[in-house]
Design a protein that fits this description.
It is built from 8 helices and 17 strands. By secondary structure, the chain is of the alpha/beta class. Helix 1 runs antiparallel to helix 3 and helix 6 runs parallel beside helix 7.
């Protein structure tokens, strides 16, 4: 239950992060016993590149403490949505932190927000959304796959997040989001193969005061179809972006100083050849040798309030009537 609040001491049943190196990070359950593949209860031992870790030994230790393994050591850390994204069991392709941060910013999600998500998948984005809406908001997340729904419900319960999220099994493209969410959501997120089929149903769940929508699509053809539907349904401020994270290396470099004295004085033959050039040290940012690859396109749009939508419909009708009279 360590996802809900920060703790000082690890308790039995907590999910924690085992940090070995920047590329070797794992999620571990602090449980003394676990079930083997044959269903037999055995000691819970987690194997790492630096030796075995008895998970029972973690109970009672402080978060952030250093633990000794047979071939090295590691650190036990508080779980966060960012660390969970790096260590979660992949049941589907997931959304990573750079895209997640832009989604939460553009959807204007804050504590108390009601958010609808379709395409739960492995729950990477869901954990970040829950943290953003806590303590008074709620996440309603949908997935059509029965087994994925069951597994993500179990994870939310293990992490102590069940009070902030409701998981539903539903094909929202065909059946919508349900009558219980009518005019209830501040924002909607879609991660679907055919998001343009679900967009018309979002009109029923977004609040009458308006709201925001985001669609994540790996292909530009999906983006084009979604934008066409968004425009026809009266959404405004439609924009598509791609988030690429680039890490620059800050280094101290030596740069030669160009000697321009020869421009001021005429040569008299007394110049010394091979004179050592002056060098200065400066701090600079060096770009990476390779750029990160494409993940997906984020399409955002705003749905105006009901009164503005009705006014726009009236204006459009008046324009059509004027054109028909010509």
């Amino acid at each position: 239950m360590s996802f809900d609040n920060y703790k000082t001491v690890i308790e039995e049943g907590d999910t924690l992060i085992l940090y070995l190196t920047i590329s070797q990070i794992y999620s571990v359950r602090a449980e003394a016993k676990t079930l083997s593949k044959k269903g037999v209860e055995v000691d819970n031992v987690f194997q790492t590149p630096y030796g075995a870790l008895k998970c029972a030994d973690l109970i009672g230790k402080s978060y952030g403490s250093k633990i000794t393994l047979s071939k090295g050591w590691g650190y036990v850390m508080q779980p966060t949505p960012e660390l969970w994204t790096q260590t979660l069991p992949h049941r589907t392709q997931i959304i990573y932190t750079p895209d997640i941060s832009m989604i939460i910013l553009q959807l204007e999600i804050a504590p108390g927000s009601i958010v609808v998500e379709s395409g739960t998948g492995s729950g990477s984005l869901s954990h970040a959304l829950i943290r953003a809406v806590k303590p008074s908001g709620h996440l309603y997340t949908f997935d059509f796959h029965e087994n994925r729904v069951k597994l993500v419900q179990e994870e939310f319960a293990q992490h102590g997040l069940s009070d902030y999220v409701t998981v539903n099994q539903r094909d929202v493209c065909s059946n919508g989001f349900g009558d219980e969410l009518e005019n209830k959501a501040d924002s909607v997120f879609l991660d679907l193969p055919h998001p343009w089929q679900a967009i018309p149903h979002t009109l029923n769940v977004i609040k009458e005061t308006g709201g925001r929508i985001c669609s994540f699509s790996p292909c530009i053809e999906q983006v084009q179809k979604s934008c066409e539907v968004l425009s026809k349904l009266g959404f405004q401020e439609i924009q598509t972006m791609e988030v690429l994270q680039t890490s620059y290396s800050v280094q101290t470099r030596k740069l030669p100083v160009l000697d321009l004295d020869f421009l001021k004085n005429e040569k008299d033959g007394t110049e010394t050849k091979g004179k050592e050039r002056e060098v200065v040290k400066c701090i600079t940012a060096v770009p990476p040798a390779t750029m990160p690859g494409h993940t997906g396109y984020l399409t955002f749009a705003s749905l105006p309030p009901v009164w503005a939508r009705k006014l726009q419909i009236s204006l459009n009708q008046a324009q059509e009537d004027n054109l028909s009279d010509l």
